[in-house]
Structures are given as structure tokens and as C-alpha cells.
Amino acid sequence: MKIYEMTLAQLIEARESKKVKPEEILAAYQARTEEVEEKVRSFLDRPRDLTAEYQNSQLNRNSHSSQNNQNDKSTKSSNSGQSNHSNQNNQPNKKTTLTGIPVALKANMATCRLTTSCGSRILENYRTPYQSTVANKITGSGGVIAGKTNMDEFAMGSTTEHSAFQVTRNPWNLNHVPGGSSGGSAAAVAAGEVPCALGSDTGGSIRQPAAFCGVVGLKPTYGVVSRYGLAAFASSLDQIGPLTRRVEDAAIMLNIISGADPLDSTSARIDYPDYTARLEQDISGMTFGLPASYLEMDIDGEIKDQVLQVAEKLKEAGAEVREITLPPADLALAAYYIIATAEASSNLARYDGVQYGVRQSGKNVLEMFVNTRSSSFGPEVKRRIMLGTFALSSGYQDELYKQALKVRTLIKEKYEKVFTEVDIILGPNSPTPAFKIGEDMDPLDVYYTDIFTVPVNISGFPALSLPSGFSTEGLPLSVQLIGPAFGEVELLQAASGLEKRLDVPTLAALEGGR
Amino acid sequence: MTMPENKYQTVIGLEVHVQLQTESKLFCGCSAAYGAEPNSNTCPICLGLPGTLPMLNRRALRFALEASRAADCQINQFSKFDRKNYFYPDLPKGYQISQYDLPLGYDGKVTIETEDGGTREIGLTRIHLEEDAGKLIHAGTIGDSTHSYVDYNRGGVPLIEIVSEPDIRSPEEARAYLNALKQMILYLGISDCNMEEGSLRCDANVSLRPRGDSEFGIKTEVKNMNSFRAVERALTYEVKRQKKLLESGRKVVQETRTWDESSQETVSMRGKEEAEDYRYFPEPDLMPLEISDEFIAEIDQSLPELPLEKKERFQEQYNLPAYDAGVLTQSLELARLFEETAKKHDDAKEVSNWLMGEYLRLLKENELEPGQDELSGEKLAELLELIEDGTISSKIAKEVFAETFLSGKSPGKVVEERGLKQISDEDKLARIVAGIVAEHPDVVEDIKGGKDKAIGFLVGQVMQETKGKANPQLANQLIREEIEKH
Description:
The complex is a heterodimer of chains A (514) and B (486). With 514 residues, chain A is of the alpha/beta class. Chain A has one domain (1-62, 96-514): Amidase signature (AS) enzymes. Chain A is built from 17 helices and 11 strands. Chain A has an 11-stranded mixed beta sheet with strand order 1-3-2-4-6-5-10-11-9-7-8, sandwiched between helices. The longest helix of chain A is centred in the last third of the chain and has 21 residues, at 398-418. Chain A is globular and about 70 Å long. The two termini of chain A are 24 Å apart. Chain B has 486 residues and is α+β, with helices and mostly antiparallel strands. Chain B is built from 15 helices and 16 strands. In chain B, α2 packs antiparallel against α3. At the A-B interface, α4, α11 and α12 of A face loops of B.
């Protein structure tokens, strides 16, 4: 087995048993990336030499005795510095788990050394003077940041075609999109450029590209992973999570990136468990809920069949599958597109050309703002800023934004009730497999494809996209598993049990494709 | 009040912003200090860089709650922050984190003293906590400025906004309200209320209505008033302007006006149609605030005695006139000095006289605030003892007081060093008196002839001779005895 073919768990095992050195791992991924990146185009920015990055970081670790001792502005601004995990002794070897492992970060996560463009012209070449909490956790665990991955501009989109810079291709079929908005991260994992990557999920932006690219994508419960350093799209919905080739790898990554963060007031103050704890326990005895009405909606036949087949497999494995009723998905979708755009209209107000990023001059300040924002935001971002501004405007706020918040509460309550009856909800992810690149779609039709993923962001619950097979066209198919709030351990247990029974390949060969 | 043309009633409401004197800013660890190098007190958080998140400064929350409780506000025990959205170069995030529908405090009041010596309560609509914006410095003059500099040092400094009910009825009352508010905040020690440095700012809503009407007239908002005096003047101008409009049958236009200090008038800034829609919504980056009964009780316990309470106590406990008690409680330092002295010296009125007279005069002369001088209660008490036991005269005492005020030397030491001790030695004084009387036979004749007042001249001569150190009562007595002999 080649190094880049290994899963994250296999890499760690090989490194721990001294079968491979960190330098060899990094060199192997560097070579693989150089081989396939031209076809896939996952990265917006990456270090020239991963091994050199690793050696530098090792030097720093030794000289600083692995303490949090950056005396720069990022620590000045915090009262208590970075959170550390000394209280999490149930998660072994945390400081070395990722030693020599390359990890790709979506281009909306702040890193000092690589650009954080968010896929936008307005932040072209922009580097933050501080690091996101997740970036610090990756490097703090010995990992090497292998690059910043392509994404739909400010995470708004479902194909990664809304990136201002390049089109990323689906490693399973280069004529198809990788999904979005974390399309670069999903493609990089499926193509074997990295064993794991981080994405952000506001309405499905981890799970849908994971489904399109046939890899595992986990959106944790809101608050489990710190958002500090994640350029916000919709603050109350955004959540960072891992994209990996195996469920076990997602659990390993969640162990590293989760935790309460004093720099993020919305991060959860809970006892963080070992997310790998129940991976080996079986799913017999678990109860799965199947929302039958979801399968009656406008959904691809093969995807529907996948969900039903998976339900059968669950029964074979001794699990119970029960029909459930979920709140109407179209209500959740409507509420989502109001809340997300409302928050986005405010979050993106800071890109005004005053302090950083691109500036277009004008005769006066107002003209400078208008010129900068008009010329440097793409059409999808502008559309959502306008929608959100409208939803918050006086005279409309009551019937749009406030109504959406009420719907949000109702949906959350409905889901909570369902979780008193079942352990995990099984359903589709995206209504279709990966779209063709350049497919002309009405924006509303594109929004509709988020219909199965957004309820989970609205309610804050964790959900996972699990590869389940391939379409007749050879495109990856997947199912979505949803757990109750902070139920990641059980969610990963269910996904792992199912994964073993499905045994789906998750690495695209990329041979012969163009 | 008695002017016949005064058929309109003035209605004023004030919005006051007060910077809280915390070490660090409201949502990050940067220093909140005034006057640093531009942009030196900044970090990724208060610069609003992509991905950064706010963290609440608990001390600022406490200060805001103290202000709310001192002003008799109810507390929203479930409160939250909201975003106020607008574009301006000094606002790094494109929104200000403020509070909208659930302010920390609501339904409070501030008691002011009216000109007739009574008191009146001005209602407070709300007190809320928010972050300050940065500051623009325009290059060149306003007319031909080609660019501006942005200083974000002030960005993120904690502010409370105190909104009054439209209960204020005259520009004088507005000033009295501001004084009372400032005094209260200084007592709490949560701000220095320095208007020049912008740590206290005030906007006003002004309208007139026919006396007896219950409905409000159309209001204007007046901004850019940089001192309490400017507030009073701007409001006086604005009331006059509106009255003129109404009396000539025209209408007041709802608008925002700015006070122009150089021309001493208010000038239209923007109309109602240009008013911005701030699109407030709950700040998703901060958790809602839950303020427990225990926390409120603890705040209440910790509040210091407030100005009016102190004034009333001074009147009662020290038997002071209302005027004295009012002056002495103007500043916390002055009140403290009074009480320290009165503890050691029984004649409280005497203490009050010295503080209201010499002390305030010297402060003014030296451009100092109470507490910035060298006087202490102990030293003042010592001085008063020296007068009472006849060691020095009241006149000499003023000289000693000035010395102690500036240098901090104890009055006893000053008297000794300068040889100011009063001559109460009868023999010594009698000899001096004899000499003076002998030198002025004509005056002695006058006195004998019934011009008793002329004795003052001789006392004056004795004082001159002794450089003021003679005990004047004793001198007077000895002169009479000496004249008897003639």
C-alpha cells in the first residue's frame, strides 16, 4: 500500500510502529499532490515544501517546549490564551497524534503563513496576523498545514464554482463539481492529496461536498469546535468539522479540534469525551429513524434507493429502523435562507476596503465603499447580502427574520422530540449526485439542493455524510446520519458500524482522467 | 417663568454616552487608556479582522450594572447584545455591538435640584452597554480634505448609553441633570466623565408644545455639544429657534442639527428621510446575559453612598445648612475631607466654612481638583485647634492654610518655622501697647472724648508692630487699660 492510500488511522499506526517517518509521509503526499493537483485544483495556496514546514515546526516546538507562548497580538488579545486540553486525559497522545500528518484547511480559516482569501477577490492574497484556534490545534498536535483549499466565495454555494479564483474538479469524474462550499477540502481528501481536511458547514458545506466526493464529512454539534479564526458566513450556523476517508479518522480529528475555547463565547462548555470510544461497538440494538416523507420529495431515484438499502443493512445488523415524521424540510430551508443571509449581510460588512483586502477608490468614502464592494464581491455573495439586508430591514424584519427565528425554535423542538424515540436519523444528504461543471442552474434550484442538510444547522445537531456506494454513472452516493445535540460519540459509533458493512472505496484513482 | 410670551412648554430628553474606566476594552484585552499612539491599542479582535470573535469584559458589565442600580433602574435579568449595522470607516466590523430591545437597565431616575431649592425626578428610559467606535482625523481643513486617518484606539472601549425620559423642562434643568449624572458616576468611580477627552458625550432631543398639551411637539436632535455649558447654550438657542418658528405659524422640521460653537447656533445636519435603518438583530457571537438575583443584590450592597444621600446625612449628622451640605458633597474627595476633619474637630460649621471658603478658593487659584492638593483632614483639624487655643489668629491661619495646602507641611510646623505664634504674653504686649499709646496722644484724646471706634486704629498699630502676631482681643483690652492710666 502506498503511503497516500493509507487512512489517517493507518498512517498514525505506521508512524507509531516506526514503519514510516514523518518526513516520508509528508514527501509522499507532496508527490501525490504534485501529480494530481493540476487535474483537481483543490488548493488556493500551499507551502512549497511540506517536509521543510514540518522541520521548522519541530524546531519551534523544541525551542518553545510546546507551550503557548506567542507574544504576538493574538495572545495579547486573549485573557486566558489558547485553551489546552490538560483536562482531557481521556484523549491519548493529543500533542503528537498528527505528527508529520498533512492537513488541508478551507481558505476561510485564519493562518499566518498562507493566504486566507475565503475564495474572494476582496481578500485576494490576504494573510491574517493571527491563527485560528483550529490551525493552532492542528499544529499543536504535530500536524502540518498542507494548504488552504478552494471554496465558494465566503462559503456561499454548493459547487465551489463561486470561487473567484479557480474551478475544483471532482476526483471521481473531472467533468463534475466537487460540491461546496468546502469543495476543495473534499476533493483534496478524495484525491489522496491529504489524509484529512477541515471544512466549514453552514447549511451543508461539509456534508454535501463529502457526499459528492465520496468521503466522510462530519458537522459537529454547534459549539463543539471553536469558530475563532473562521471568517464568518452565518455565525449562529457555522461549524467547523473534518473531512476524512474513514469514520475513525473523523473521530480522531474531532478529538483534536474540539474543545471549549475562551476566545469563542459560543463554544460549548462541556466535558469533551473521547470520540473514538465506541467505534468498535456494534450498531445492533440502536434505533434509527427514517423520515419517509423526505423520500417522497423531489429526489434522485438512485439516492432514494441508497437510503432504503442502507435501512435494510441496518436491520440485518440488528438495529431497529422506525419511520419518523420530521418537520417539513421546506420550512427549514426557508428559515435557513433568511437567517443565514441576514447574518451574512452583517458579517460581510467589514469588507469595505478601509483596513485590509482590496480597495477601489472613489471621490468620497461612500463611493469607495460602493466601488470596492461592487467590484470585488461575486454575484452569489451580492445576492445573499441583498437578501439578508432586506430580511433585516425595518418593516420586513418582523415577517421575515423574526418569523424565521420562531420557525427555527419549532424545528429544534421537533427534532428533540424525535430523539426521545430514536438514537440516530437516517436520510439523504443531497437530492442528487454531483452536478456537471458549468451546469446552468436557477439560484433557487441550487438553494433547494440544501433541503436535507440545512435542518441540522438550524437545530445545531451533529450530522455525518457517509459514502454508501456509486451511481450507475460512477459518481459517489451517500447517506446522512443525524444525531442529537452532543451525541457525536453515538453518531460516530453508528456510522462506523455501518461503514464496515458497506465497505465503499473512498480514494479516487485519478488515472486516465483529464 | 413669568414672561408673558411663554405659552410653550419646553420638552427635552438627553442621551448621554459615558466611557467606562476599565483597564481593557469591552470585547478584547487591549488597553482602554486614552491618549496612546494612534492604533497602538489594537488587536485582531478590536480591528474586526475576519474570523475574530468578541469576549465580554465582565468588569464593564459590572460597572454598567452599578450605574443602572445607582440610578434606580430595574434590571433585565435576561439581556443580550445586538448588532447595530452601518458603514463608516471608524467602525471596523461594519456594525457596533450594542443593546437594542433588552438593555441592562430600564425605568430609572435621577434626582436633580431645582432653582427654588426643591428637587425633581428625571426619569431614565434605559441604560445599556455598548462598544465605542474609532476616531477619524481629517487631513487638511474640512473644506479641502483629501483623505482621513483612522485611529482605532478608541474602537471597542466600553460605553454606557443613558437615555432620559422627555422629562427635562428647560436648558438649565438639562445642565442640572448632567451635573447630577456626572456626580453620581464620579461617586461610583466608573468613569472620569471628562468631556474634552470624550469620556462623556451628550445629545439632546428638543421640542416645544403649547402649555397644557399632553402630546409632544415635533422634535429636533441636537449633537456636537462639547461641554455642559455648550449643552445649555445650544438648548437655549434651539428652544428660541423653535419658538420663533411656532409663533410665526411655521412648523418645526424633524431633523438632526449640530451645535456650531463658533457661530453659537444649531445647524441642520440631516433630515428624517436620511435617518438610517440600523437593522438591529441579536449578536450571534455572544451568549445572552443572565443576571442573577444574587449578583444584583451584591451590586446593591457594593454601591457607595450617593450624592443626595450624603447631602441629607451631612445636614442631619453635622447640622449643616442645606447649602453647605450641597457644596461639600459636590465631589467625593471634598466630602471625604470634610468628614475626616469633622471627626477630629467638633465645630462642623467651622470646618465647612474653611473648606467652602479658603479651600475652594485655593483650588480654583491653582487649577486643581479636590484631592490633588496636600491638605488632609488631620492637618485641617490641627489648624483649627491652633486657632481655637489662641496660638494663631484667624488671619494668620489663612497664611498657614495656604502653606499646608501647597506643601503638605503640618500647620504646627509652619507656625513654628515662620514664627507665627500669637503674642499672648501680657507683659510683652503691655510694653508694646504702652509705646503705641504714647506715640498717639491725639488718638487717645479722641477716644477719651467718646470716639470709641478710634481704638481700632491703635489695635491696628499694635498688629503692625507685632506683624500680626498679637492676640487682638488681648491687645484691645491692654490698650483700654493703658488709656485709663493717662
